[in-house]
Amino acid sequence: MQRPTLNETNLDPPEMMGFIMPRLGRAENSMASAAEQLASNLNFSAFSKAEDLKKRIWFTLGALLVYRLGTYIPLPGINPDAFARAFQGQAGGILGLFNMFAGGAVGRMAIFALGIMPYISASIIIQLMTSVVPSLEQLKKEGEQGRKVINQYTRYGTVLLGTLQAYGISVGLESSAGVATDPGWFFRISTVVTLVGGTMFLMWLGEQITARGIGNGISLIIFAGIVAALPNAVAGTLELGRTGALSPALIVAVLLVAVGVIAFIVFVERAQRRLLIQYPKRQVGARMFQGDTSHLPLKLNTAGVIPPIFASSLLLLPATVAGFANTGNLPSWATAVLASLGHGQPLYMLMYASMIGFFAFFYTAIVFNPKDTADNLKRHGGFVPGIRPGERTAEYIDYVLTRITVVGALYLIFVCLLPEILIAQTGVPFYLGGTSLLIVVSVTLDTVTQVQGHLIAQQYEGLIKKSKLRGGKKGR
């Protein structure tokens, strides 16, 4: 019952073609109703009987525990105290963003400091290239075999990006006074090998969680890294309330706002615009299948969490570069621009919102092609009522997708800017920003869906066994 994986990061959008295949007759309708009935009967007793699901959950927890232990193993050849002092000055830049995704491994410069981000970056790059490179586009259309080749290219890209990033980290560590205990080529090579090896191990661990756990291993690794620091953040906020730095009423109000935002994210992430698809009568051999109707679901937020990640990374890059450089030599206008790009500043808010909106439309155009969807519908005899198949259908789907993407972009902007406004106006150290909040909620929803899928599969197996036993008794 494995679902197709994106993002793996709610990180790749689901293949839309699987939703528009025609349903064949009453058999599938009865199967769908049976699935709904089974889903409504899921309870704790059904979970207690699902031995395979228990094993998958324990395997997933064990794998995530291994990941968390790796974030505390320091990189060989560095002075942890000196690095902690150097990192404090860069925690507000792009390093702080990477540290959040890596579960604090960057702040400790652990062997998993690169995290899974090189794999995510390589996946996005390959996905973008499939839209502009004809050979990769053809591979994408070849089904499972083509997907395996694309995954192999993604792994090669992960090694390349990880090597470049690890070498840059090694040079940066050497340039910081007292961080590298023995600077030189041996330190650089060992750093590159260790960090790239850590990333490849995490990539393998994510694939194992997907295959032997409860699915979407890469997303769960990022999820575990983000929520790992949540207890300390909550404890720190409560400590501020105890000392009087924050009023208890303000803390309660922020918690209520956070709960409301999470409920809003759940509602929007599950929202779909369903286009009615009709299929005419057709004959297969001697059998005549009645015409049927189906739906083409278009997610309100097709781009997922990619727009906030891109936007925050680009906005934090100037501050990070300025932090490594000598800001005293910068002209006055550059210093003013850097100050206005700080968290909570109006220019930062405006550019953040603009970039999120741009990347929402850009990434949606990359991952969903209305023309391919219309051609696939036409090939299987499906059509939108009142719309001519082919080019007219593609134009209609693009029209609907553009309208709902506007709503999805406004939703992303609201969710991502609200924590920034709360931090700027109230001073509350809101740990979960918009990007991390989206990832946490999306991965949680997907994990719950995976667990329900395993439970439904287990109940189906039980029904099949009972029917076989009954058939055997009747045969006797």
UniProtKB/TrEMBL annotation:
Gene3D superfamilies: SecY subunit domain. It comes from the Bacteria. GO terms for cellular component: plasma membrane. Its main location: membrane. The chain crosses the membrane at residues 57-75, 153-173, 185-205, 217-234, 246-268, 305-327, 347-369, 400-424. GO terms for biological process: intracellular protein transmembrane transport; protein targeting; protein transport by the Sec complex. It is a multi-pass membrane protein. It is found in: Cell membrane; Membrane. Keywords: Cell membrane, Membrane, Protein transport, Translocation, Transmembrane, Transmembrane helix, Transport. Belongs to the SecY/SEC61-alpha family. NCBIfam families: 3a0501s007 (TIGR00967). Component of the Sec protein translocase complex. Heterotrimer consisting of SecY, SecE and SecG subunits. The heterotrimers can form oligomers, although 1 heterotrimer is thought to be able to translocate proteins. Interacts with the ribosome. Interacts with SecDF, and other proteins may be involved. Interacts with SecA. The central subunit of the protein translocation channel SecYEG. Consists of two halves formed by TMs 1-5 and 6-10. These two domains form a lateral gate at the front which open onto the bilayer between TMs 2 and 7, and are clamped together by SecE at the back. The channel is closed by both a pore ring composed of hydrophobic SecY resides and a short helix (helix 2A) on the extracellular side of the membrane which forms a plug. The plug probably moves laterally to allow the channel to open. The ring and the pore may move independently. This is Protein translocase subunit SecY. The lineage of its organism: Bacteria, Pseudomonadati, Pseudomonadota, Alphaproteobacteria, Hyphomicrobiales.
